[in-house]
Structures are given as C-alpha cells and as structure tokens.
C-alpha cells in the first residue's frame, strides 16, 4: 500500500515519463551532445581517460601537483571508468529518470540519531547499518566515516542510498545528514537551514569526530546539496576535520541556478517534496513567514526567497542572501582535496560554459574536476552491478587519497597518534600538508 507521498511521486514520474516519451517521439528533445564549437574546445581541456569506444570518455581538469599525479595513476589503473556501455548516452533526462526509478539493491537498514544544536534545533543522522546487520554500526573502530549529504530539498534519492550501500560493503561507515525539517527530522524551532549556511553541518562533523576519534572523516554530496558542502569547506578551511570530499553533479553558482530555473520535470517534484514537508510545520512557521505565499510558491526561487528573504524577523534582499550563501564564496580557503564529478549534458546544472568554474580547477591545488560528455544529473549510468560508475569513482578516489597520505607520512616520517597506553587523547585537527599539492 503506497503512502500519499508515494502516490504523488509515482504520479509525477508517470506523467514525466509520458511527456518524455512524447518529446522523443516528436523529436523535440534536443540532444545535449550537439554543443557549440566553443564548448567542444573547452571539453578537450584536461587529462583524458579513455574507456570503451563511444562511451566513458572522461577528462580530469586540475592544477599539476604530486597529489594530482597520484590520482591520475589511480584512476588510470582502475576499471572504474570502463563500465558497461549505456544504450542511450545522449538522453540525459532518460538517464536521470532511470536512476530515480531504480530502487536501491538491497533495501538498506537505517538507524536514526537526532542531534540537538545550540539553539535547540535538531538535525538527523541516519546510519546505514545493513541489510547485513539489523542493529549497531558496521566496520572497525578506525573504519572511515562517510558523511552523505542529500540535495538541498532534503530528498534522499535511491542513488545516494546505493552509494551508501556500496561504501558499507567496502568497510566505510556511511551516515546521511538530514537538515532541520527534512526527511522526517522534527522542526523544533521556526528556523530552516539556508542554501549555503554550514553551521548545522559543522555541529554534525564535530559530533562525528567525537564519536569516531580515530577514524578518517570523508564527505560526499549530491546535486544541489553540494552547495552546503562547498560552503562548509570554504568557511572551515584547514579546520574542516575532513580528510577528503567529493561532489556528484554539484551546483557551483547558487544564485544563477535559482534564477535560471531547472527543467520543470525536475523542479516540480522537488517543489512538491519541499511543500509537503513544510506544510507539516505551517502553524509554527507562520510566526516568521507568510505561509500562504510560501506554500503557494510556483518555483524553487520563489520558495527560497519567501522562506529566507521575506521573513518577519530578519528580512533581507535577494542579493544580500547570496552574499552569505554562495557555495564558492570562500573557495580560496578550501584546504582538503575535493573531487567534483560533472557531466557536460547535465540538464539541471545547465550548459558547461557558464556553470562550471574551470578557472578554479586550473588554479587551486585542492579542486579536481572529472568531466564526462554524457551522464545527466547524478545519473552516470552503466550496465552491471552498481548501475552508477560515479559511485565507484568516488570510492576509488577516497582509496587513492588514503593511500597517498599514508605514503607521504611514511616518506616524511610524520608521527601517528597511538591508541594504547595512558588516557585517551583527542587527535589534532586533520590538515593536509601544502607540499602535497605542489
């Protein structure tokens, strides 16, 4: 028996598939592979990774460094970029719908933990512990903790769950970060989390460090949720407590993205998902916002502006809001490696030329762009186990980063903290050595 939310989602998907089929039949769907000459030239920039003929041609754009050389060798040796060929590489909308329709295999077992914040608000941490274990965490004491950040609407997609399950199989400890009021997390204060405000995420990372003091902390975000992760890395700098991070189909320029708008096929389901969650707290939110205007929003921009710029307690202009919430506002301060997996035909992010900050990847030793011609938005489909080659690429990237760090520590004789004898001591905040990135 489907829940009301499930019925709404199923109806939206069926309507979307019907209209998509009509567009394909009428040949009205523009193939994103037919890019202009300027964008084709830009796509040729970077280090190529060749896979099967006609599929999987990726390029890595980054600033030359010892760390970059190690990543190139690791990805080149790995079979990650040589998955089974997807039969419709030039239809990104179909790729994304395929990923959304496929449920995670097997069905995950999740244990929820509520974390109280300094202002009495709550965020939820969902620990993936199965299906192999029904209770308790998996992995050893020092197994790496992988923090999964959903999109800005709080929608935990099947793809994100699938990534968590793949990580669990590899010995990671995966945990999903849910913002205030998202994904069933109770809203105990009339305040939600703005697009690029990392304060709540910082509290969650601090808690994870206390709970797993000897483990490496890693983070991966999906879609528009990357705005939160990138903002956190920029504001925290070398004190982020993360060893490495990755972003799947990130949104780099938040304001431009909201103002341009997404294709309705993606915007309306997210808008309905947000409204359904907010309607549960309409009475509490009425103290700070016009709930009629909020629930009557016809676009994600209108909803965002009503919620955070037209509040009764702290009204703000749209321009001032984005001065505080642009994902890359402090990109120069990022001090841990960040892999961004993007597709040139991403219909949600938009055309590559205006939406990809290529200069950032050319100049910063910490940012790596893995760009593929075809993959859609958070799709990156392939045949065979896993269905998404980007998930395997992210896990291979984390493995390569850990291997590089261990090699550098042995070479330079850096001390490693002991975990036996004497009282437990909290390890120092993790920081990358700048020489690694030169």
Automatic annotation (TrEMBL):
One term under GO cellular component: extracellular region
Keywords assigned by UniProt, alphabetized: Membrane, Phosphoprotein, Secreted, Signal, Transmembrane, Transmembrane helix
Keyword Cell division annotated: no
Bilayer-spanning residue ranges: 6-25
A Gene Ontology molecular function term of the record: short-chain carboxylesterase activity
Localization: Secreted
Description of how the protein assembles with itself and partners: Interacts with PDE3B; this interaction regulates PDE3B's stability and expression and, thereby, impacts the antilipolytic action of insulin.
Family listed: Belongs to the AB hydrolase superfamily. AB hydrolase 4 family.
PANTHER family xref list: ABHYDROLASE DOMAIN-CONTAINING PROTEIN (PTHR10794), PROTEIN ABHD15 (PTHR10794:SF39)
UniProt-recorded name of the protein: Protein ABHD15
Species in which this protein is naturally found: Malurus cyaneus samueli
């Amino acid at each position: 028996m489907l829940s009301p939310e499930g019925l709404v989602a199923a109806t939206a998907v069926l309507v979307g598939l019907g209209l998509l089929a009509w567009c394909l039949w009428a040949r009205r769907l523009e193939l994103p592979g037919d890019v202009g000459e300027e964008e084709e030239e830009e796509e040729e920039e970077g280090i190529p990774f060749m896979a099967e003929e006609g599929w999987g041609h990726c390029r890595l754009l980054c600033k030359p460094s010892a760390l970059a050389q190690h990543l190139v060798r690791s990805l080149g040796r790995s079979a990650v970029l040589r998955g089974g060929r997807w039969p419709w590489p030039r239809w990104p909308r179909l790729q994304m719908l395929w990923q959304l329709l496929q449920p995670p295999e097997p069905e995950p077992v999740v244990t929820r933990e509520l974390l109280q914040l300094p202002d009495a608000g709550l965020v939820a941490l969902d620990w993936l512990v199965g299906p192999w274990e029904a209770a308790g965490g998996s992995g050893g004491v020092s197994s790496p903790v992988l923090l999964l950040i959903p999109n800005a609407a709080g929608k935990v997609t099947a793809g994100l769950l699938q990534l968590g399950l793949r990580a669990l199989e590899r010995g990671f400890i995966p945990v999903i970060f849910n913002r205030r009021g998202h994904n069933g997390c109770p809203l105990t204060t009339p305040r939600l989390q703005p697009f690029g405000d990392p304060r709540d995420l910082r509290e969650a990372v601090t808690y994870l460090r206390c709970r797993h003091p000897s483990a490496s902390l890693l983070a991966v975000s999906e879609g528009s949720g990357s705005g939160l992760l990138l903002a956190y890395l920029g504001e925290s700098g070398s004190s982020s407590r993360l060893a490495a991070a990755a972003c799947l189909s990130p949104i780099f320029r938040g304001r431009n993205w909201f103002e341009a708008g997404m294709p309705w096929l993606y915007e309306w389901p997210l808008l309905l998902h947000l409204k359904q969650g907010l309607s549960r707290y309409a009475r509490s939110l009425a103290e700070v916002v016009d709930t009629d205007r909020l629930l009557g929003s016809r676009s994600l921009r209108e909803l965002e502006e009503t919620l955070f710029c037209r509040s009764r307690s702290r009204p703000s202009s749209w321009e001032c809001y984005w001065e505080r919430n642009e994902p890359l506002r402090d990109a120069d301060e990022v001090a841990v490696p960040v892999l961004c997996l993007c597709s040139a035909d991403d219909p949600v992010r938009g055309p590559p030329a205006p939406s990809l900050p290529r200069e950032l990847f050319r100049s910063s030793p910490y940012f790596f762009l893995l760009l593929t011609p075809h993959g859609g938005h958070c799709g990156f489909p392939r045949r065979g186990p896993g269905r998404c080659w980007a998930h395997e690429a992210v896990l291979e990237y984390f493995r390569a980063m850990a291997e590089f760090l261990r090699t550098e520590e042995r070479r330079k004789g850096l001390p490693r903290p002991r975990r036996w004898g004497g009282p437990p001591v909290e390890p120092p905040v993790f920081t990358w050595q700048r020489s690694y990135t030169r």
